[in-house]
Amino acid sequence: MKLTKLLIIDKDIPVRKDPFKDIEGMHDLKQMIRDEVIDPLKDPESFKDYGIEPPNAILFYGPPGGGKTFFAEKLAEEIGFNFIKVSPSDVGSKYVHGGQEKIKQLFDFAKENSPTVLFLDEIDALIPGRENSEIGHHYASEVNEWLVQFNNCRGQDVFIIAATNKMGKIDSAVLRAGRLDRHYYVGPDRDDRDSTIHPINTGPSNLPTNLSNKRSEGL
Ligand SMILES: Nc1ncnc2c1ncn2[C@@H]1O[C@H](COP(=O)(O)OP(=O)(O)O)[C@@H](O)[C@H]1O
Ligand SMILES: [Mg+2]
Questions:
Q1: Residue 201: CB within 6 Å of ligand 1?
Q2: The model's pTM
Q3: What atom in ligand 1 is closest to the CA of residue 72?
Q4: Cα 30 from Cα 20, distance rounded (Å)
Q5: Is the distance from CB of 130 to CB of 175 less than 8 angstroms?
Q6: Which domain holds residue 155?
Q7: Which of 141, 191, 207, 139 is nearest to 169 (CA)?
Q8: Which ligand 1 atom sits closest to the C-alpha of 64?
Q9: Mutation test residue for ligand 1: of 20, 27, 70, the one with most atoms within 8 Å of CB
Q10: For the chain, what is the domain count?
Q11: CA of 67 to the centre of ligand 1 (A)
């Protein structure tokens, strides 16, 4: 299989110092992600001494337009990983109910291009609950394949970030310990909700960003 749309963007541009600066607000979230994700991923050995394994998957939940995709991209940039995005809403995406083999190929591709952030957008549609939905039941073998691949990519420099605004529709096995067991709210800062209108579709993301890593969109 040939995977297209891998954009290799100018590798000579030096990596910018602090991509997280582009993210407005969300101070607590940024600090949590630094402590729990970025630092352990950057320096796994010293964390292992304390019995802390770097996570291999996290889940962002929050309202549409709340910055989940944006945050995931900045996080990939921050740790210098390639970024592969799979989105069910992309027309013709091969990975949305394209069968088990396609899912395996996706993970192989992520491993070949490691270190990689594999961003699974709308994971509730990619991995729907088998227990209580007809659709989930119908795609049970695919759901199983996702679970197998989640387990297999441990220690392979593939870091999964999943995103959803429908937490209740995700297959519960995916949310279990050792898989997507770390959940982070990404959205308007809850404390400032009354006082500030959170910027959406404005802000520094419109400035040219350094894209020294490879990006692959809309697979
Ligand atoms: N904290 C933030 N700082 C700067 N821009 C933001 C922030 N949150 C959202 N945005 C802007 O809003 C746009 C939409 O966010 P997006 O990441 O697509 O939301 P979601 O994936 O949660 O639906 C982003 O492209 C970005 O320009
Ligand atoms: Mg999004």
A1: yes
A2: 0.82
A3: 17
A4: 8
A5: no
A6: 21-41+53-216
A7: 139
A8: 23
A9: 70
A10: 1
A11: 3
